[in-house]
């Protein structure tokens, strides 16, 4: 008996018991589909976050001031002195808080950012209309504001917002500019924001505390040197208390997230792979039942000249056909489930051909491993004992 004949007999056996065959393949189907969908979601999430981080620039540093004891913050002048370094292109100290903004009957809650002129370059915003915050606004505590595109629409609709006035926590401000739409990032929407001079923010929030400084390094290869300089200056400022601040390197953040995401994807894939092992056990169980049911058939085939390897090949190919067909159905369901997740839950899903190939190959391997024992048992049956079997 050649391989093509073995496949024909395997197909005939599978089709003769359609429901049993489908239930046998169920573990393989679920396992392959789960591996494809879960790993796809994991890789898609990694890509989405990586793209967002890289869009901010890998030469971006974030200094977070936590403070301890009596010294909990620094003011913006001190922040400018600390970041006045040769290798720093731009540095924007930030005094930020949520506030209610209102224009007539229209109101919304947004993030109000008190900062300096460098904020535009550090965050890589573009001004769609009007201008951005200038040094003169800081010097004279001007009550002016630059609106994010979404905030401008929420407050003024299609009307040109530049030159209009609105209220921030009951205090009137004049709109001098509108930012171009920038979409969302890890920190949330970049378009639902109001930017005001940091000196004005100190009065509005009744706080001179700078909790965050965004720093753009002139050259990527100077990152480590700048981090060391900033940490040295901040350590001196906080009198040796290194727990009062943190300097985050954007690239380190990206590397850490990628490592966590890879580990999570591996764990999800491992959990899904358990279904493949369960499916393999199901195949072995059904194949053992099939051997018992077809004992007389095996005896007749051996009696008319079938060799041990013919019987072994027949049952092994039948097990491989079950697992392989289950793998193909699992691929179809996994791809469909990934597309459904992408559309319904707005998730980014990245389907990887190597992962799909690996899942299918593993399903076939499961068929070989768990089909070998029943196939070997069938091939070792003695013809006389098989013919006597009732």
List keywords for this structure.
single chain; 390 residues; alpha+beta; six-stranded mixed beta barrel; two-stranded antiparallel ribbon; 13 helices; 57% helix; 19% strand; elongated
What percent of residues adopt helix (DSSP H or I)? 55-70%
Q: Given the helix and strand composition, which structural class is it?
A: alpha+beta
Strand order of the largest sheet: 2-3-10-5-7-6
User: How far is the N terminus from the C terminus?
Assistant: 26 Å
What order do the helices and strands follow?
HHEHEEHEHEHEEEEEHEHEHHHHH
Residue windows where pLDDT falls under 50 for at least 5 positions:
none
Number of helix segments?
13
Inertia-based shape: elongated
For the largest beta-sheet, the strand count, sense and barrel status come to: 6 strands, mixed, barrel
How much of the polypeptide forms β-strand, as a percent range?
15-25%
**pLDDT average, as an integer?**
84
> What is the rounded Rg?
33 Å
Q: In total, how many beta strands?
A: 12
Explain the overall architecture.
With 390 residues, the protein is α+β, with helices and mostly antiparallel strands. It is 57% helix and 19% strand. A six-stranded mixed β-barrel has the order 2-3-10-5-7-6. A two-stranded antiparallel sheet has the order 8-9. Strand 6 and strand 7 (171-179) form a beta hairpin. The longest helix is centred in the C-terminal third of the chain and has 44 residues, at 250-293. The protein is elongated, with a radius of gyration of 33 Å. The mean pLDDT is 84.
